[in-house]
# Entry
Amino acid sequence: MIIQHPDQNKIRLEHVLAALGNPMRMMIVSVLADGGEHTCGSILKGISKSTLTHHWRVLRDSGIIWQIPSGRESLLSLRRDDLDIRFPGLLNAFLHAAECDELTKGVIRQFSV
Amino acid sequence: MIIQHPDQNKIRLEHVLAALGNPMRMMIVSVLADGGEHTCGSILKGISKSTLTHHWRVLRDSGIIWQIPSGRESLLSLRRDDLDIRFPGLLNAFLHAAECDELTKGVIRQFSV
# Structure
């Protein structure tokens, strides 16, 4: 399995914003914000494989996450350094809202495992 | 003409991000960042009325802009205070990228009047 990721200098702000602007992807990014690698299956449960595959692809193609094959699974992690270099403050502002804004926390909580 | 806007405490992060994640709306917001009121017609030219109406509605419904009727036109302005209170740093990070990131500047420039 070969998975393409955009180089850091090809990441586009409009793709990042559009990718982040979805409740399920907000939840995924808030989990990956711990800096670790997570298996796909550990982040969201009870969601169809095709739906998950779609969300991983949107996050990966926009340059928000790395998706690295590992055996029969793949490991996901946040491209925090790349995003911080290209769009300083953007991810921090997003994660601050995800942690502190009541409405945003509610949106994320509905998908939390 | 009655135009609805979400109250500050009803603005949702996922709607703001999705609304910002579009080249034409990025350009509109970067113009409104000067803090002034702009007529709809002064921001984008050569775009069909239905397309413009769609973009104003997305920006207005997500809580990013005020759209205030004024005679036969309407005046647009950025809800900067509301966004800064709800999502500190988010708009600044967006506008920084719009001013400093080469790829983002290119996207915005293609729609500039």
User: Anything to note?
Assistant: Residues 12-109 of chain A form a domain with the Arc Repressor Mutant, subunit A fold (CATH 1.10.10.10). The two ends of chain A are 27 Å apart (CA to CA). The interface with chain B takes residues 9-23, 26, 86-90, 92-94, 96-98, 101, 103-104, 107 of chain A (CB under 8 Å).
